[in-house]
Amino acid sequence: MRKPIVAGNWKMNKTVEQAALLVADLLPGLEAVKTVERVLCPPSTSFMVISRLLAASDVGLGAQNLYWEESGAFTGELSVLMVKEFCKYVIIGHSERRSLFGEKDEHVNLKLKSALAHELLPILCVGESLEENENNQTKKVVSQQVKKALMGIERQEAEKIVIAYEPVWAIGTGKAANPEMANDIIGGVVRKNLAELFNEKIASNIRIVYGGSVNKKNAADYFSQPDIDGGLIGGASLKPEEFLGIVEAAA
Description:
α2 (about 45-55) links the parallel β2 (about 35-40) and β3. This protein has a single domain (about 5-250), classed as Aldolase class I (TIM Barrel, Alpha-Beta Barrel), CATH 3.20.20. Strands 7-6-5-4-3-2-1-8 form an eight-stranded parallel β-sheet. It is globular and about 45 Å long. It has helices at about 15-30, 45-55, 80-85, 95-100, 105-115, 130-135, 140-150, 155-160, 180-195, 200-205, 220-225, 240-250; strands spanning about 5-10, 35-40, 60-65, 90, 120-125, 160-165, 205-210, 230-235. It is an alpha/beta fold.
């Protein structure tokens, strides 16, 4: 059985003080749900404070991005070693990184390899735009993203990766892919490509989650689907009642 995982992507929200207050509100409820892997991904400015707040718990800390080099003249970037100092997880290839900051599939691949080489657990994001969805290109686009991101990844490393299917048109819009459609893409496209790249056994062990306007009301509908193993949660992860409701639904 694949253990469900729910990760909260706080994006560019919360000062250090605000982040600490949010963790204080979330932690008692999160610690009560042991059957779900729970991860918080705040801005990097809060890593030191939040890592201390989470130290006595089994709630994981994740970064929203990294750069693949360990150090160097890369102004404004966060190196893999800087992430590893505080975090166990890292989000890679989020659609906002791709669309707003020009991140290409080859960059995603380099980041993924670097994260794995430094024993971080990557949450790899894939998903199509609204235009691609409306032009029936979802399968093609998602397949390409999966294959290019995982190029050169060894079989023994593959099972450490969590993949998040996040249709771009559903992120922060209030529009969500219906659970059956999301499950079809996750099982029929993402997991199918994983089986082709590695093998059926590895593909069946890799956790694939859904992201895009998930809330506590619709979460159970997604998590009841056979191929959906949890969620990568954006806006709702900033609201304790919503996020805890989603985690409980995953349990």
